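User: For my dataset I need records formatted as: sequence, then structure tokens, nothing else. Please produce one.
Assistant:
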Amino acid sequence: MYKVYKVQNRLTLAVDTINAAVKKNPADEKLRNLLLKLYYEKKDFEKVALQSKALIKLNPDETRYDQILVNAYTLMGEKVKARDALEAKIKRHPKVHKHKQHLVNFIDRHFGHDEALAKVDKYIKLYPNVSELSLAKAGLLSKSKKKLEAERLYKKIIDEHSQTPGGIAARIQYAEFLLNNERLVDASKQISVVLKKNPRDTDALTLRGRVAYKNNDAQKAILSFQSVLSYKHNSISAMKNLALAYEINNDFSLAKSTLNRIDKQVKQDLQGAVMLARLHRDSKDYEKARAMLNRVLTVKPNDERAIAELFNLQIQTKELKGLESEIKEAIQKKPESKILKRVFIRYYMSTKQYDTSVAVFSDVA
């Protein structure tokens, strides 16, 4: 009956059916997994957390349940409990250092850079020769103003771990650091070293494509992202990158067909939907663009990229009545949004209010 209820989208009845089965068989991991998925679909994250805890007790080696628990707490705004769940996972698996990396990154996102740096320094004192922890620190430094310190640390890790997977990971992360700082030649050198050792390294191929994209070498970017997809057939990020490369090469039909693959594969991929809407707008298929954006805004009403793209669509189709006040209202809600301010510039340029557009541009620059 569970499958019938699920197909009919009668989630409450499906939950009741599986719950009854779980009460009879509380140690059945498959049943609890089904219940976990149903609670996720219902967005009942409190119950998701309870089922995750039960599954961790049943199978403490399956760290996927820990991550689901962390996600549930985060979605409920329980960041301290989420951090505690990550700490508990580390206590159960003290030698799996990537879990410590995840905790450091979580603390950086939710509790601040200084606290994350203090945490990773504590771990490095305990495990001074573990490359993953040094890489976590380098990543934190690269996001701060301590870029020279970050670069020195990347080079140190590469020198000390050149023949290990940690050395490869360091080169990849260092190449991304160089790319983000517009040092494209240096980034390419690091990428080439990785690809010489392993031509199928998808992280290196992705970075090579991004470097090519920055250099406006659309053909090289396309080849790089196609290579990634040949090894990772269902990679959403590779499809998005490939679609962007097609777009700068003016291959709009190929860009749209690539994004349509995303749309079929992941119905809730909002970023892909906004990109596809922009491509529909560029090719003057305005109704499809509007439909894509409405879908995104139904799921996530405050998505600033979708809101900005809808404004761009209205500007392009000359639906200007009341638009200025709508854009102003959106910016008041998100005063730091450069995306929305760029739309405002476009609006003022389209209505020939050049002095006002210059003033807005000065604020964005």
